What we know:
The protein is an alpha/beta fold. It folds into two domains: 9-74; 85-183, no CATH class. 35% of the residues lie in helices and 23% in strands. The protein has helices spanning 9-26, 54-63, 122-137, 139-144, 168-183; strands at 31-34, 41-46, 70-74, 85-87, 89-91, 97-103, 106-113, 149-153, 163-164. It has a four-stranded mixed beta sheet with strand order 8-7-6-9. It has a three-stranded mixed beta sheet with strand order 1-2-3, covered by helices on one side. A two-stranded antiparallel ribbon has the order 4-5. A hairpin with a 1-residue loop joins strand 4 and strand 5. The longest helix is centred in the N-terminal third of the chain and has 18 residues, at 9-26.
Amino acid sequence: MYTFDPDDVEVREKLFDELSEALERVGDHLCFEFGPPDEKREFVISADGIKDGFPAVVALKKAAPRLDRWEIIAFRPRRCPMPVIENDVTIDPSDVEFSLFTEDDVPGIQLFLPGMPEGDAQKTYRSIGYLLLDQALGEYDVETAVGPIDMVATPSGSEPERFPLSELPRMFDELVERIAGKSVKPS
């Protein structure tokens, strides 16, 4: 499994089906990702952004044996640089912008997705938007530290100030620190 050929569709599909079935037996919403075959290859266990699946991810990580060639990672980690996402449509993270705001001292994100349509077709764009947020902030932080998330088509006006998605990790962490500092009461 460490050196499987991802271009061998038959082998890849068989392996992925077996892994998916095994994860389904453990809990709902579980999925996985492989990292590239380096000195240690990453095997990411994810709840697919569904908070109800988090306990199963934590339990699997805790039960995982130590392996010389694998690093078992709970939840999608932050990824830099972020890869292009393809899911019926293709969105390059370098084309995505965001704005941060706070609501009741909880950080919120407005994500501007170029080409996002109205109506039912938004579902694909929203899925990609959440994958981009998972890559920018990590799946755990998106589900536990972010409040409201609003995904919209890239506006042409000057609504809120927008920033490139690549700046989100730094700016989000700074906002969380400011909120935490504000909520600490002096003795």
